[in-house]
Amino acid sequence: MDCRGSLREDYSVLLEKVDIILLLNTPAHVREDRILKRWVKQRYGFECCNYMPTVKMLQSMYAWSRGYEDNYSALQEILEPYKTKIQIVNLDGLKELLELSY
Question: Which of 60, 27, 62, 55 is nearest to 40 (CA)?
Fold first, then answer.
């Protein structure tokens, strides 16, 4: 997997050092809504970004999101050696994220 925010195989050194691996699992429709809202904010200057928020970039973001779904089994294989450290957090929205406490 090589899209933004995803796990790369060369991260194994880091994964060995951490105590907990949090895998935030959000439904595809929630991610897609967030992608569009964030892109609109960036496009109209309400939020800064390090890239030009073009329609092509928006399409790429949706493709990366679909890629996450398509490659989820590959992610599980990469994380298999660290399964004792993994905590999957199923999130439907910000409320659940704010309720997390460690």
Answer: 55
